[in-house]
Amino acid sequence: MLQVQLAQHLGEFKFDVDLEIALSGVTAIYGSSGAGKTTLLRGIAGLDRTLQGKVQIRDMVWQNESEFMPTHLRQLAYVFQEPSLFNHLDVHNNLRYGYKRRVTSSRSQMMDIAIELLGIGHLLKRSPENLSGGEKQRVAIARAISSHPQLILMDEPLAALDARRKQEVLPFLETLHQELDIPIIYVSHSLEEVTQLADQLVLLEQGSVLANGPIEQVITQLDLPLSHEYGIASIIETHLIDHDEQYGLSTLEFSSGQFSVPRLRKAVGSKVRIRLAAKDVSITLQQPQQTSILNIFQGVVAEVGASETPQVMLKVSVGDDMILAKLTKKSVDQLALKSGVTVFVQAKSVAVLA
Fold it and tell me: Which of 10, 86, 135, 320 would you call most buried, defined as having the most Cβ atoms within 10 angstroms of its Cβ?
């Protein structure tokens, strides 16, 4: 575990965080602007000595009341919004700069792994000035991996990219998530990025931790403001079990049935994460007949959220998963929906994330 207990008072802003972060997979730090996301990341990295408290990774103390390990001695890598590559060096030597800072027998191997995972082998002889924004960021991430860190910190690495460049980089970040055995702490204010990449979610608001846990659980807590954001979606982990070549569909199995989605370029047996937008989920009390909707599942209403707007968030237990549905108050009243009521969930569309 990574233990973080840090505090700072700057004017009216009070930052006070006490949390543990699992050293596996991707942990997303999410919150609105000014929530303290970058402050937290800088504190972990040792870039802000005004943050008082403790940072400990496994059994190594990076910082406490009497000790402060400088950033260059903490075995971490930091990826900023801007790539910050050295223009006087080609891509290959930018990567070498990353791994030369670490004394390890496997550093060259890590650089080769980074080049393959980020798909930059054809860019090695180029100058950073001749790279696109997405290519620069991929090189910056590869440089971070090449240093063979214990931990990678990413501070909104896609924020400076346009939508097309983001979509260029995201698949490579997914590959890191699946293939790399280095924990990543990923700061973002993009709900789409967070749901696509994260295993764990730390929700910050005004310098405090509102929630910390598996993303599929935190994102469906109706007492948190996150569950009422526009674009909120449930996350379900599935396995690809079949391809239907006749209709161009793939079948994904989860805890309570099977999803049909457009044909995936993945092998049978692959793990696939899907996202169900709450606005694309409808509810009925009887199993639909003769409908064009392929994905229909029986469930039980777990919770009806409180709301001061005409729309209400519903949480439905479907097998071992929780699915969110955004309905009108009128629909909730007409169907007499409350905890314990058996319903059928209809998924109008399914977004495949990985």
Answer: 135
Clarify whether residues 113 and 250 are in a common domain: no
For the chain, list residues with pLDDT below 70.
Answer: 98-108, 351, 353-354
**What does the H/E/C string look like for 30-56?**
ECCCCCCHHHHHHHHHCCCCCCEEEEE
pLDDT at 110: 85
Rounded Cα distance, 313 and 326, in Å: 5
Of the candidates 353, 28, 60, the one whose C-alpha atom is nearest the C-alpha of residue 186 is 28
Instruction: Kindly report the CATH number assigned to the domain that includes residue 126.
Output: 3.40.50.300
- 169 and 300 co-located in one domain: no
Range of the domain at 177: 2-228
Give yes or no: residues 6 and 21 share one domain. Answer: yes
**pLDDT score of 154:** 94
Tokens of 197: 């990449």
Task: Decide: 276 and 236 in contact? Cβ < 8 Å.
Answer: yes
Instruction: Supply the DSSP symbol for 182.
Output: S
Q: Which of 228, 244, 278 represents a domain boundary (last residue)?
A: 228
